[in-house]
């Protein structure tokens, strides 16, 4: 049985629970990727018992991701890996994307997740998970793209095969580096770049 299929209220070995951000007192998420609704009294006076929520699969980008339905003045679907990431994975650089380290999108244990930028997430798909670039430019990123150009960070003299590599290294959004290279910005995050 997968962790997310375990609907028992008994904790899994090593399981730790944290409040779901924005739903304090209503829902908790665990480091094992389970979500529970807490015992509480509704405004109508009806009591809701504590239960482990059933997770459902949603197809996105040709992969299935697990979601749950949470209620707080209306129903909202939430991706389980995002709930786990927010609750258990430090994010000092304020990155926006939760990545499944080994590509198993149904394994939402905190140990299997990490924060990434979108550029890092895309590179991860090629470098770690072995995604292949298509025969056309569609799907090619970084130095594999036909329009990729080597760039230099003129601030410190570092050279990169493409803007995507520089974005990943400096943890700066790719579009900002591109805007500097095209002369639309003078610098970004204290760095200047140019195409070679």
What does this structure look like?
With 196 residues, this protein is α+β, with helices and mostly antiparallel strands. It has two domains: 114 residues, Homing Intron 3 (I-Ppo) Encoded Endonuclease, Chain A; 54 residues, Orthogonal Bundle (Arc Repressor Mutant, subunit A), CATH 1.10.10. 18% of the residues lie in helices and 27% in strands. The chain has four helices and 14 strands. The strands form five sheets. The chain has a four-stranded antiparallel beta sheet with strand order 1-2-3-6, with helices on one face. A hairpin with a 3-residue loop joins strand 8 and strand 9. The longest helix has 10 residues. It is elongated, with a radius of gyration of 21 Å. The termini are far apart. 23% of the residues are buried.
Defining traits:
196 residues, Homing Intron 3 (I-Ppo) Encoded Endonuclease, Chain A, Arc Repressor Mutant, subunit A, 2 domains, 14 strands
In short:
With 196 residues, the protein is an alpha+beta fold. The chain has 2 domains: 3-116, Alpha-Beta Complex (Homing Intron 3 (I-Ppo) Encoded Endonuclease, Chain A); 142-195, Arc Repressor Mutant, subunit A.
